[in-house]
Amino acid sequence: MATIKTTERNDGPVNEPDYLHVTKGIKGWLFTLDHKKIGLMYLYAILISLILGGVLALLIRTELWLPGKQLVEQDTYNKFFTLHGAVMVFLVIIPGIPAALGNIIMPIQLGAPDVAFPRLNLSSFYLWVSGALLLIIAIPFGGLDTGWTLYTPYSLESKTPVLMAVLGVFLLGFSSIFTGLNFLVTIHKFRPQGMSWFQMPLNIWAIYATAIMQVLATPVLGITVLLLAVERFAHIGIFDPTLGGDPVLFQHFFWFYSHPAVYIMIIPAMGVISEILSTFSRKPIFGYRFIAYSSVSLALLSFLVWGHHMFVSGQSRLANMVFSALTFSVGIPAAIKVFNWVSTLYKGDIRLKTPMIYALGFLLIFTIGGLTGLFLGILSVDVHLHDTYFVVAHFHYVMMGSTLIAFLAALHHWWPKFTGKMYTESIARACAIGAFFGFNLTFLPQFVMGSRGMPRRYWDYDPQFTIFHQLSTIGAFVLGISMFVSIVNLMASWKNGKRAPRNPWGGSSLEWQAPTPPPLFNFEKPPVLHEIYNYDDLVEVEEDVWERRAPIEEEPSRVPGDAHAHAREPVKSAPPEPIETKADVVVVETKAETPGPTATAVEPPSKKEDDK
Amino acid sequence: MSEQPHAAHDDHGHGHGHASVFIQHHYDDAQHQFDSGKLGIWLFLAQEVLFFSALFVAYVLYRHHHPEIYAYAHKYLDVKMGAINTGILIFSSLTAAWAVRAAQLRQKSLLIGCLAVTIACAGGFLVVKYFEYTHKVHEHILFGRYFDPCVSSGGTPLITKNNQCPGTKSTVQWDVTTGVASSGCFADVAIDVDPRARNVQADCEVFAVEGTETIKAGKSEFVEKSRKPITERCFDAVFGPNGGLDGKAKPTGAACWKTNYNPHVCKGGWFFTWSCTGEKCTAPAGTEGPFATDTACKEQRTSKDGTLKAQGTAVVSECSSSRASGILVDFEDHQVRKGNVRIVASCKAPPPVVAPADPLADRVQPLQLGQKTTTTERPLSHHDQKEALYAGPPPPNTNMFFTIYFAMTGLHGIHVLFGVFVFIWLLIRATKGHFTPDYFGPVDFAALYWHIVDLIWIFLFPLLYLIH
Hints:
The complex is a heterodimer.
Chain A: H1 27-30, H2 35-63, H3 74-109, H4 118-137, H5 154-157, H6 162-189, H7 202-234, H8 247-281, H9 288-301, H10 317-345, H11 354-377, H12 379-385, H13 389-419, H14 425-451, H15 466-496, E1 528-530, E2 538-542, E3 545-548, H16 565-568, H17 579-584, E4 599-601
Antiparallel strand pairs in A: 1-4, 2-3
Chain B: H1 30-65, H2 67-73, H3 79-104, H4 108-139, E1 168-175, E2 180-183, E3 204-210, E4 213-215, E5 222-224, E6 256-259, H5 294-302, H6 311-322, E7 327-330, E8 336-338, E9 340-347, H7 382-391, H8 399-431, H9 441-465
Antiparallel strand pairs in B: 1-2, 1-9, 3-9, 4-5, 4-8, 6-7
């Protein structure tokens, strides 16, 4: 049995090339339908955007080192923070975990050969690329100065290329919709038989909840920016008060998307953290169902709280109160997650690998970010804090500190799986710690500044805020350097990293059964389904190499033409020995003799006899 | 619609029971692929609903805030055209659904026929829409700042702000010295009915003011005035509650003018300049233009009260007493003109002003002793009130109705157009015989898409065309 060959160090696919070597040349990448390659292309594009957005952030922080002009004029500063926001939100955080890592990992974690619609997946990627290019090309055309929120009526008047940018956002939105649609169908139709909804990894639950929001919220952004674009060139008047339109309607539409978008950013992060905390605590996740349900309930609640961005925009008092109350209810599923994560750690065999350090940092940062959100949900307090650095700090704690840290955690967690290489652990760990401290140094002072009245998006400030701005700037550089080095460290592993084993962290989900790196259709043979988050069987045979202790009962696939039949067939050449015949000689232990958790062979998805 | 399978992957190994070459590799079988596609298209339709939902929300919001706009503006739409399109779309939904059945039963020619009829219906829908749109463009019944219709929704000619609507053109030879039009005449109907009514503007359009000589204020220096036709329209003044001209200044360099109050007299008049530099028009500095009669001049001066608020009423009283009529030309260059002026203008009948309903009209009179019932006289029947409303000028912000109308029907039209391309693609594939009982997903999914396009129209038709 291939899964129990403990001495096998080359953990790549045996009978076929891995996905990186199926095809050669640039065409093999640009026209690939393989979810892993598409995901990897997303990942690179996102990392480039991350560096762009990060450089803009550092320029902003440098400008704010002292009151008055340091680097740039006011107008340029406006463009800097607008592009920083737009690039980070639309190009990094929203697609970061779902589109890049979700694409790479989710189908493998599900035991599926690919996503449901590979062609749609590739077109989503190209939609994303065109949208991103439109957004970035806006920089040489004068940059955008509306803030990433594109509020009317200023966005109707701004002399900057708003039209180009909103068309970019429109395309990015549809990329996100199609990705979500693809993932929903994949999770529904490609779950192997035997994997019920409550045996799915929590990461997949999170991606599922995210995909719901992507499909249902993003169209509203699509139509909103479309209307904004038409308003800009045809003056239809829908958001233009001089023509009888309503600029606040834009805010409603915008936040109807953009609040769920915040959860599109954070819920996948929560899924990743659930995986990592459990894996590195060597303990089943505490309250599996609660975490799963809380992901979905967060997704549903996210549609009901958009008004809390507009407490001072002229909403009715009743609407403000309703939105405030609903906003507090978001605290319930979020707190459920945090309590369950902490309970997972309790008495766990905690291993402080890089992903775990990031995950623990996430736990603290997310808690602060979540709790400060409650301040802003209180109507009277929000009047004071609205549009101050307190808000900036709060949403950076959630969007940047939580999501981006989780993105890095996920990147370090699954990097060995999809690259087949181990990164340098010591550098990665140092970067994780540096990022944590740098982040807090950047944004904790901003809470103080904000509560003392420092308004956001200002180029100049009162000298009393100098010390906080300087602390924040120092922190930003620590954070920026840590993140940059950690990315360089990962990239260097392509060349210098040692070969990654099949299961370096002792993960229990299906992706750790796949060869490293996986072949084109992810598995050479059907993965074996174990009880989710049960680590009893997994032992660390040497450092960073985990194996299942007992031979696993396995049944060969019995249905001809099942999903994994493709995987068993070699792509290029005939196999030296068909794997099916291997399965025939396996001595299958009976379940009664297996003391450990139950294990069942994956079977293909059920085939419905329906009304065709 | 993007998940349609394609014959790309049949290069290696379809030897395990796949009936159609269009079954992609990573699916177990035809059924698995069909089920996945079906779920995918349903999710796509869900996002379509959300995509349109913002427009429906905008519709509800603006209708809630401005019901009068919707009551007035829907009358501009042609119910007949809308009904024809509804019929066309419903029929094409039938043929689309029939096409699915034909594909399932391998009835190739029926499938081709159904698809062709669907395409023809979609094309017909777009043709009808084209006629509706061009009519609106022609009549300036458009969105936003382009809403400037030539006729009211009931068909009465309207004063427009910027448009040269077809109408009668009058040429008046104006003698400023005597204050009498020496030749030509503005028709009675062309003269403003009540300048104090808000938003009632002059109904003539000046194309040229020729033969003008200008005296710089207070000096006898004659300057030839430009003979350029004046197309900038009429004085956009609003007579506020105080009777003053509280309209804002026109853009510099443009002539603005206003017909005077007198519905019965078409000759005689007076002429003087006003300066419209600030929020309000200020009286001419020292040199008022010639008045028709001495009495008129005297009345004009006495009625001014030294305040601006008297201006509106001054004009009224002066004219009604002097029986003089004419036009007030504001050249905005603050210069007095003398000599014969030839004014070329196009005039139309102003919209009749709808009298506000008597709030007491419907009040039930208290019963007197021995009286069993009351009879109240209603000044206008419901129908007459509606007619009067439709005949009048559009209420403020009526452009918002057409913003929403064009946004909704335009987006829907784009979806119909996209549907046409999809069905043409299906037609090509159907002629090649690609669809089998094992593989008819694309037809099914396109039909579902077509149903939602149809369904959206079924909501749009009553919401836009059939409201009251």
